[in-house]
Amino acid sequence: MKARAGIVAVLAWGCGPSPAKQPSAPSSACSPPSAAVQRLVVALDADADELHLDYTPVVDLLLVEREETRMHAQRVVEGVAANELGFRAGQGFRDEYAEEQTAQVAHAIDYAFDAAPSARRAAAQRWRAWLASPSVVQVDGPSRAELSAALERVRPQLASCGEPVDLTVTFASTGDVSSVFGTASTDPAYRNCLAVAVANVRVPRFRRASLWTHFPW
């Protein structure tokens, strides 16, 4: 367990923005891995875990002979993509956009550890290119900034219902809040308080049936 914790601690912040900043857009690239990270990557099979997030040396492992190593490496790069697009351990995805885009990236790259060698090589190159410059495409609906701003305006009311303010909010296509779930309490009075607090929250209309987001992130 100690070895796993060490690998996760080092690899989780081997690239990308610091947890304190958490910008809305991913960073363009990562610095070369340190010697410590290189040593930990060698232990990939010995302590495999999907939360290993350093990717620079792991892309090469997508092409090694051993199938189990390729499988572990696939989980690593998929985890990195999810993290770059808005996934956080213990919280999940920050919104529906992040979840959809992560699935779209994996589908477009189409790497499978058990595919034919030529297919693996081509897909590994696609992973390398995407990881060097992660891209985010805004899908139909209000922006993340609009979602956050709309809820930020009623943060005092939300906090008065109970803290921590840790919510999953679903918007209908009309731009109105259709449901709100918080973690502060299971009491019906708390849920009613949240519903009242967001009763006048609005975002621009959109075409999809609904859209959920976490607040705050």
Give a quick summary of the entry.
The protein has helices at 2-12, 35-42, 58-61, 67-85, 96-109, 117-132, 144-152, 155-161, 188-197; strands at residues 87-88, 92-93, 167-172, 177-182, 210-215. With 217 residues, it is mainly α. The strands form two sheets. Strands 4-3-5 form a three-stranded antiparallel β-sheet.
Name its key features.
disordered N terminus, two-stranded antiparallel ribbon, 9 helices, 3-stranded antiparallel β-sheet, mainly alpha, 217 residues, single chain, 10% strand, elongated
Describe what this molecule looks like in 3D.
The structure is a single chain. The protein has 217 residues and is mainly alpha-helical. It is 45% helix and 10% strand. It contains nine helices and five strands; from the N terminus they run ααααββααααββαβ. It has helices spanning 2-12, 35-42, 58-61, 67-85, 96-109, 117-132, 144-152, 155-161, 188-197; strands spanning 87-88, 92-93, 167-172, 177-182, 210-215. The strands form two sheets. A three-stranded antiparallel sheet has the order 4-3-5. A hairpin with a 4-residue loop joins strand 3 and strand 4 (177-182). Helix 4 packs antiparallel against helix 5. The chain starts with a helix and ends with a strand.
Count of alpha and pi helical runs: 9
Largest sheet descriptor: 3 strands, antiparallel
Q: What proportion strand?
A: 5-15%
Structure summary, number of beta strands:
5
**Strand neighbour order, sheet with most strands:** 4-3-5
Structural class: mainly alpha
> Which stretches are low in confidence, meaning pLDDT under 50 for 5 or more residues running?
1-28, 49-55
List the secondary-structure elements in sequence, H or E.
Answer: HHHHEEHHHHEEHE
Outline, from the CA principal axes?
elongated
Distance between the termini: 29 Å
What share of the residues lie within helices? Answer: 40-55%
